[in-house]
Amino acid sequence: MSILIVRLHIFLTGLAKTERGVTSIEYGLLAAGVAVVIGALLSPDGSFSDTLDKLFQNILDQLPQASSKK
C-alpha cells in the first residue's frame, strides 16, 4: 500500500510541474477574448456600428459642400 502512495505522490508532483499545455490554453483564451471583442464591435445592432455609420454619413454630407466651395 505504501508503494502505491509513493507512486501517486510522485505522479501528482510531476503533474504539478508540467507546463506543456499551459501555453496553448493561454493562447486559446486570448483568441476567445479577441473574438468576443471583434464580435461586439462588428455586430449590426451595436453602438459602435451606429457611431461608425453616423461618422461616415457626416463625411458624405460634407463632401458636396467642400467641392462647391472651390
Structural descriptors:
mainly alpha
Summarize the structure.
The chain has 70 residues and is mostly helical. It is 84% helix and 0% strand.
Characterise the protein shown here.
The protein has helices at 2-17, 22-42, 47-68. The protein is mainly alpha-helical and 70 residues long. It has one domain (2-68). The longest helix has 22 residues, at 47-68. It is rod-shaped, with a radius of gyration of 28 Å. The relative contact order is 0.05. The mean pLDDT is 78.
Unreliable sequence segments: none
Give average pLDDT, whole number.
Answer: 78
**Class by SSE composition:** mainly alpha
- End-to-end span in angstroms? 94 Å
Shape field: rod-shaped
Helix share of residues? over 70%
Please, how many domains? 1
Rg for CA atoms: 28 Å
What percentage of amino acids are in beta strands? under 5%
Record field, number of beta strands: 0
Compile the SSE list and pairings:
Elements: H1 2-17, H2 22-42, H3 47-68
